[in-house]
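From the shared-data thread, chain only:
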Amino acid sequence: MINERVIRKLKQTNISENPAKTKARIRELWKTSSKAKKHIVEETAGVSRATIYRAYNTGSVSAKLVVPMAQNFNVDPFYLTGKTDQAGECTSEKLAKFLTGLGYGNLLSVEAEKHPAGAFSAGMPEMASGSSEFNVNDLTLADLHLLMQSLLLREKAGVEEAIKKVAMLKALLLS
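Structure, as tokens:
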């Protein structure tokens, strides 16, 4: 998924293709989401709650808000802008196509060059050594413990991907 560094560089200009659909869809997603997910959207986008409610009330939405909403609510970014009527799911490919279509393809390329992990967040945090190469066999017990704590915190915050991973790990450990 798109990382916070890239999201913070996106503009706050209206990209809605159908304000009525955008308004209804954002309103529905926002009403049914947990406080934790709402907070993640705010923090990731770096916008105020007033900005979110403006999109919620007017149907005017920016890429800076669509990307974290699509990621956290797991919906197609084109669905939020009213371009498609299928909620679908959020994938890295759809986000790349979405941002490229808005003229942000260069930003994704530059970010990928600056940071070997790319504009998309890898599933694991970068190691403190700063090395872009990572070998799972080099993890210490303390590293594994920190990774597990991080995963459990993201699960408690309602991050869908973390919830799935925790369930999978529990099933694996109990088998």
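The chain has ten helices and no strands.
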